C-alpha cells in the first residue's frame, strides 16, 4: 500500500470567516495555501505580478480577491495591505509566501545585487508587510503571521549564499517580531520547507542544465521519505500555525522536509570507532 500523501483538509473550523492576505499566491505553495484557507471557510486575498495568473487562482476560491503587486518593490507593501483590507473589511492573518529567484541571486550570490534582491524580498518586504498589517492583525487580539522560510536557512548550499543568508535573517525576523507582537495578540511563526515540487525546478533546469526528471531524482535523495514534497503538504502546517489550534505557539520555525534537517546516524558504528 502506498504512503498517504497529506493535504490541507477541512479541519480548522477556527479559520472560517477569517480574512487572510497571502503574498505570492498565484502559484506553488502560495496557491495551494490560498485554496486550503478557502476550503476552510476563510476569505482570501492573494498577490502576484500578473493579473491573469491571479484570476486563475481566485476562480478556485469560494470568496477571493487579488492585488497585483511586485513586492520586490517595497513601496507596494502599504498599498497591498490597504487594498486587501478594503476588499475584505479587515485582516486577521498574513501569510508571507512571496519569493524571488532573480538572475542576480543565482549568478551573483556574493555580490551587492544578489544580496540586495534576496534581502529585499525575504526580509525587508515581509517586515514592511507585517508593520503595515499590524494595526489590523492586533485589533481582535487573535492575529497570526506565517512566514514561508526555507530549509536553506538551516542547511546551506555554498552556491546560494545570498538566498541562504537572507532566509536565515528572515527566521531571525520571525523570532524578533514574535517577541515584539505576541503580547499584542499576534503570533508570528515560520514554515521551513526543503525541496517542494514548484516552479523552482524550472529555474534549476535553466541554471544546472539538468532535466527536470534528473533534478527530481536528485531531490528525492535529500530526505528520508525519498519523495518530493507537494505544495499542499506545506499548506497544511501553514494553516495549523494560523489557526487557533496553535494558539500558544509563537516564534517557532517548523522544518517540513522529511527529516532531512536531522544529522544522519552513522550506519555502521564500527566505522566511527575504528582505530580507537
Task: Provide a brief overview of the structure.
It holds the Pfam family adh_short_C2. The protein has 276 residues and is α/β, with parallel strands linked by helices.
Describe this entry's structure for a reader:
The structure is a single chain. This protein is α/β, with parallel strands linked by helices and 276 residues long. The chain folds into two domains: 13-194 and 230-256, NAD(P)-binding Rossmann-like Domain (Rossmann fold), CATH 3.40.50; 197-228, no CATH class. The protein has helices at 28-39, 51-58, 76-88, 103-107, 112-137, 161-181, 200-208, 212-220, 231-242, 269-273; strands at 19-23, 43-48, 64-68, 93-96, 143-148, 186-193, 253-256. It is globular, with a radius of gyration of 19 Å. Mean pLDDT is 88; it is low at 264-273.
Question: Which characteristics define this entry?
Answer:
alpha/beta; SDR_fam; 2 domains; NAD(P)-bd_dom_sf; Rossmann fold; 276 residues
